[in-house]
Design goal:
Layout lengths: L3 E8 L5 H10 L7 E6 L7 H9 L5 E4 L9 H14 L3 E4 L13 H38 L15 H9 L5 H8 L3 H15 L6
Amino acid sequence: MGNIYGYVRVSSTDQNEDRQLDAMHEAGVAEKHIYMDKQSGKNFERPQYRRMVRKLKPGDLLYILSIDRLGRNYEEILKQWRVLTKESGVDICVLDMPLLDTRNGKDLMGTFIADLVLQILSFVAQNERENIRKRQAEGIAAAKARGVAFGRPTVEAPENFGEIVRTWERKEITFEEALKRSHLSESTFYRRLREFRLVHGGRDKK
């Protein structure tokens, strides 16, 4: 009998690692064999997944909570499933879908049913994600049409910003004091300083 592994993937908009980790523990996966990736919505780099795949050997068992943990779209899910089961010889058990357990139905009919269910569920998972993104985009567009502002509010420089800048450039005050008088963070101060110099044609020597 091979080793038992568990894979958990969460993103900044899907912070449910506790539910996935609880499912791994209930399935009997040892803590040292649980691999977890946390990622932003802008990238799909999965260093822990790649590390885990390198360790997997024929006869090992991999638990995932749901099929969409394997990939972010229909094609990727199917590709990873085939790589793991066909090339690596690993069994996969999807905990929230008992039909997707490659330990069951090793005959031709069982394999056919599992592959069919996998393709349907992968398509449904991708379709649902696309619908969610579409609804979010429509909601944002509707909110903007109503005048709702998104993003961080712009922090403006104080009216006496030019005087503060000139005093700082003459080394009469420290940079920290300039920040304090401007009520700005360091990054915002430099942005407003660039804008000020553009408007006033470089360093103001008055």
